[in-house]
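Can anyone check this?
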Amino acid sequence: MSTANATVFTSIAAGDFQDSTIWDVGGMVPGENDDVIIKHEIELNLTQKQIIKSISIANFANENAGLEVFGTDSLVVINNIQATSHNFDKPLYLLIRDAATVIIDGNCHLLRTVDNNVDKKLIFSIINNANVFIKGSLRFDYLGASISEVNVEVAVRDNALLEVEGKTVFTNSRGNDLNFVMYGSAESTLKDSLILILNESGAETGVTLHDSSSLQVLSSVYIFNSSTESNDFAKLRVREKFSNIYIQDNVYMESYGARVKLEVEGTEGKITVGGDVIMNASAEDEASINIIEEGELYLGGDLIRETDFGKLTMTDQGALILNGSSPQTIPQGKLPNSGTDSLFFKEVRLENTSSQPMVLTEDFVVKDSLVLTSGNLITDSTAMVILEDGATISGSKTAYVEGPVKMLGTTGGQDITLFIGTDKSYAPITISAISNPSSEITVEYLSEPPPFGVEIFDVAEINNVSSDGYWTVEKNASAGDLDLTLTWEDSNEAGIMEPNDLVVAGWDGTEWKSYGQEAVGMIGTGGFVSSSLSEPPPFGVETFTIASTSSLNSLPVELRRFDATPRSGSVDLEWETETEINASHFLVERSTDGISYESIEYIKTTGGVSTSARYATKDLSPSFGWNYYRLRMVDLDGSYEYSPVEAVKLDKDASILVYPNPVKDVLFIQDTEAVEDEVRVEIFDRNSSKLFEDIIYLNNGPAQLTIDDIQSLPSGYYIVKITGKSGCKFVNFVIAE
């Protein structure tokens, strides 16, 4: 046993840690108050808990130096472990194995001070179910890394566990490869940042996962490369089957002349980044993200290039998954001065859960597949989704493209469904198989009446045409004739009662023409109709919608506009319809909170089957503050849909006071700021029925008005409306019993 006073123990020979003859303190072995210096190869078999103040491993002598810890108990180091390789001709190591546990309450720092040019390594290994917990930081500084990967410098393998609470830093200066590897279901948790640094002429600083291993970084990752050799690289990668890296925050990739990489490959290899991936490179090919084989990169933030450079490569079944919970941006594929650098999008999945659509800034070229899982993607004519030859798109009613989608080339002998719609409607379109590699087709859905006049159609084939929306299909001559399948989401809103009478209609430049019905069906609350194989829409026909051969399908009322305009003491309500097929009436509804609505007026429709109409009414008793209005548009069969909501605000006139409240006998109205000559006073009950009206002259000064017949009204809830030159005020009051 050591003495109670702190003692420095220095090894004088190789051997067992518990053998007193290997230490320079006679007859004793190190204890919890002692500092230990190891200059030889020492083994520590943990049959019981061992506590040491600090450990320093160094190879000043011409000896291999290292500490090998094994056994079934734990070693606790109260302060730090420092391992320093001074002699390049001899290896130095720290090895924890075989279910042993090492707890370092301070820092763990491994350092090589001279060039390693004869493959004698500085090694830190945790293997075979061993556990290492570092309360401080882990640093590995390597001067002149060795050329061989047979015995890598840092390894966690075979169900071993490493946990670091402070920063973890790996630095390589000169030499060859510095590697931190994980194998065999090993796990590492880094609670602070991970920093990889390559400088001078070091060939590589890398962290690589193999064989079902797992690394968690509960902060950010920084990958820096300032090597003087352009082909040297710093990298973080998942290389083999079922391994994964989870990074809670951002990944920073910075290059100053050499290369930095973020790479995922293998069977179900996965890297998850909760924040952004930020690339900062000075030239092309310096910063790259590589998704290889079946690797997957999950990105919760954005891909950001701070300069003109930075590239993405994807091969085989590799996938990029955008799965943030906040809005994300899909970046430009190729920057103006980037040379060969570009973002090569092969398989991309959108799984963003923010409920905010993604907006493109330029064309988004997909080489393989675009999978829309959650959230919409907004495109336009200057920034659209482009599917290259054989590429596919998938989606659902909660994840589709709002805007145009372009297809290039063939569809592999298969029909292709394009999941499109608007912010109001989900309306996929299916196009028959395309075999010509020179074909170009662009489709889009617009949820508004077709622009040519719905009443112009071939009456021998069509009874009426939908005014709910339409599809555009723009194609070159190579695409040839196509069969189309048009889809609607809600049969009630689409006005479809008898699907067997539906056909696909196209505008031929003069009128709507039927292209028949090859198939029709209902899917949930919606359905589809396909054009006839014998009458595919020809080249040149670019606008399509759903039509009915009978009057059994009403197809919807189409509202052109709805406006609410505040006046002095009232709100003007006006609306105009495009068509009113089988329409019955409108209910005007009002709300003061935008949630609960009440009906305030019934108005019967006046339009015919395909004619437009205008309507106007007033709300004479709006509330003070915000008022929300909507139309319930009711069809003859009782089905209905709502208009957009219009909101108006009536400002308060602070100079008018109404009191007391509740009132029993006399209600007083007072102008406190002398701004009104006269006001109109109106009293309404809760059903908006007017019970009292009079003009009150205030004589340009504070005055009081007594409404003597207030007592003639029954007890209950009332509204007094006071209208003057400065505006309108509403006050709710109660007449007491």
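Reply from J.R.: I decoded it. The chain is about 0% helix and 50% strand.
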